[in-house]
Amino acid sequence: MAVTNLDSLALGGTLAVAGAQTVSGALTVSGALTVSGASTLSTVLFKDLTEVVAATNVITAAESGSVFILNAATEFISTLPAVAAGLHFTFIVGAAPVGASYTVVTNASANIIVGKSFPASGAAGDTGATDDTITFVDGAAVAGDMVEVWSDGTSWFAYGFPSVATGITFTTAS
């Protein structure tokens, strides 16, 4: 079937294209895209999934790669999913905690966070080897403080970037 001058095409199943083809304008693919052979992409746009969080958040593995902006008048807990190799998340303080702290915890209180903090102030930051809680500390954390977490399937490796040494801590709550 040859198709030319087509404004819109909806397919169920698989679309196979043979030979050199050009797509002008936007191409939207929902689901998996498989490309075999040599391919040329002139422009690729990638945007991290970003969510402004204002209440308790139970994170799923499907949200891997997401950036969570912590932004609330009353602070809350974000719970990581079970570890799986390749999962990673970023947490950024959007509104400084006041009256309580933002926390990021492991599911089932597993003591599997290996954390290091690198304060902008140059002071020594907090570290932890068998923790279950990352805290953006009330009265110390400020907007822009950030933690990235990555999993190897066994542990969560956390790297914190606070403005001051006491802004982010790694602890064992249980």
Molecular structure report:
The chain has 174 residues and is an all-beta fold. Helix content is 0%, strand content 30%. The strands form two sheets. Strands 1-3-5-10-11-7-8 form a seven-stranded mixed β-sheet, with no helix packed on it. A five-stranded mixed β-sheet has the order 2-4-6-9-12, with no helix packed on it. A hairpin with a 4-residue loop joins strand 10 (146-151) and strand 11 (156-161). The protein is elongated and about 65 Å long. It starts with 49 loop residues before the first strand and ends with a strand. 24% of the residues are buried.
Summarize the structure.
This protein has strands spanning 50-53, 57-58, 67-70, 77-79, 88-93, 102-105, 113-117, 127-131, 133-136, 146-151, 156-161, 168-171.
Describe the secondary structure blueprint for this structure.
Layout: E1 50-53, E2 57-58, E3 67-70, E4 77-79, E5 88-93, E6 102-105, E7 113-117, E8 127-131, E9 133-136, E10 146-151, E11 156-161, E12 168-171
Parallel strand pairs: 1-3, 2-4, 3-5, 4-6, 7-11
Antiparallel strand pairs: 5-10, 6-9, 7-8, 9-12, 10-11
In round numbers, the mean pLDDT is 87
CATH topology: Jelly Rolls
Q: What is the percent of helical residues?
A: under 10%
Query: How many helical stretches?
Result: 0
CATH class category label: Mainly Beta
- Low-confidence spans: none
Q: How is the biggest beta sheet arranged? A: 7 strands, mixed
**What's the total number of strands?**
12
CATH architecture: Sandwich
Please indicate the count of domains: 1
Structural class: mainly beta
Q: What would the principal axes of the Cα set say about the shape?
A: elongated
Q: What is the H-and-E element order?
A: EEEEEEEEEEEE
User: What is the multimeric organization of the chains shown?
Assistant: single chain
